[in-house]
Amino acid sequence: MNAGEKSTPWTFDRRMFAVAGLVVAGLFGYHLYQFWEYSVDDAFITLRYARNVVHGYGLVYNPGGPRVEGYSNPLLLLFQCIVMFCGGDALLWTKGLGAAAGYAMLAGSVAIAFDLLRWADEKAARLSRVVAAAGAFAIGDSAPLATGCVSGLETSLFAALATWGTWGLLRVLQRERERVATIVGGVCVGLSTWTRPEGILLAAAVAGLAVLIAGLRRRPMGGAVIVAAISLGLWLALEAFRLVVFGDFQPNTYYAKMCGEAFPRLVGGARYLQAWTVGGCGYLLLIPAAVGGLLALPAMRVPALSLLAIALLFLGIAAYEGGDWIPWFRFITPALGVLGGAASVGLGLVAARLAGRRSWGFSLIATVVFCILAHVAVRADFVRAIGEVQTRVLGWYDGHRALGQWLGAWRMMRGGELRVALADIGMVGWYSGAHVEDFYGLVDRDWARESFRTKGKARYPTRHLLLEKKPEVIVLIATERPHRGKLRIPWRPDRDVFHDPEFARRYRHRTVFVHKDFPRDGYYLHVFLRRDVYDEAPPVEPPIPRATAGW
Prior knowledge:
Layout: H1 9-35, H2 43-54, H3 74-85, H4 90-120, H5 122-125, H6 134-140, H7 143-150, H8 155-174, H9 179-193, H10 199-217, H11 222-246, H12 252-257, H13 262-278, H14 283-295, H15 301-320, H16 333-355, H17 359-413, E1 419-422, H18 426-432, E2 435-438, H19 445-453, H20 462-469, E3 473-478, H21 492-498, H22 501-506, E4 507-515, E5 523-530, E6 547-549
Parallel strand pairs: 1-2, 1-3
Antiparallel strand pairs: 3-5, 4-5, 4-6
Helix pairs in contact: 1-7, 1-17, 2-3, 2-18, 3-4, 4-6, 4-7, 4-8, 4-16, 6-16, 6-17, 8-9, 8-15, 8-16, 9-10, 9-11, 10-11, 10-15, 13-15, 14-15, 14-16, 15-16, 16-17, 17-18
């Protein structure tokens, strides 16, 4: 701006939007720093697959074992293979990718808000751009996205693809000849099917909306159809790969994790949503603003309702899957980009209707007030998130990583051969490099399908494990004091193994690896060794933290 030139709402608008963007980016970066050391056990399953691919063993969890798709994120696996092939630290780069995807999701939320406000009406078009960053602030200031970015999982990558895919569909519904939006929307939705199994539901929703809207408008929606065609084409390519490599259309994790009865799972999913909305996360503030903003767009009812349908789709998926054990609502994260953009629209429309030509100034005040309220609302839950993540960092790492390192040292002493049976296979499998027998069936095709077929009522095939597979090590999880007289095992596979008479005859307790304060009464990994190899195991000594030798 030249000297002496008066400041206009437009120049003020650009400056304030730049300031708002820097605030959101800095705040989100600070939260990433707070949670950076947090990694989820499941992340190490995909890392082990990638390591086996790079080392020439193929797409297998156990070198020399059968091909089983025990991961849920082919796109992330491909990324990790490339990083490992180039000699990089795959976990570090995965966290970096997750952080970048988190920023991309925030940008996508702002882009959705821009487009909706620009096409809403004449008053809304004059709004200050700073209002478009309000929803992004609410998302970036909460725990779900930040923890998902650094967990080592595909959470934020899937959320970013879903957000930008939704943006592409929105643009195409408004402007048929949006070539860039058509390509971006189709590719992002298609790649989301490569990132999470739920991606196919997003692709199906996009295809269904394209057909529905074309019917309602009684004219072909060429751009929307192309978005649907690209996304479904990428999904079909993935399915063809699965069929050729694994002989199945679904990842094995689907059968392992969806083996329970429907009603208890839906009850768990409802509780998951309830904890997210009223548990202190501040989303009781976000949701009404989003729904109100979308429903207040009479000239854009079709795209607005389409966005609302996609957001509800992700919330419905979370309920259908029964929630999740991983902290801080990773199944909710894909809906946040759409909800954040829609909340900005709701805030902007209120400002436009109340403030007239000076709406840019009123929208600035409304945005600041909204962000302050959102910040206050999420504080209690954010403090709890930090506490739980820190507990899991200390507790899980002290237990599973230490156990994996001890088993890895023993495996090297044995010349590289060691078989271990346990439930949580991520860190132990990664650090030990041992052959793993999986109690939960993530990498065990037969057991996963048997559990799925019987709706989780099948008993674990303990005799097959004890008499035929004969692992040198069996790890059982208990939540009482670390001695056998009070060993309480709530998990069915662990319990079936523990109570089998052959187990007591063939295995002897060696040591306990203890999680710190997870859960409150402790989380004990009881290590049992086959009696014929008991004396050859190395001693368990410091500096392995919180591990107690002997019985």
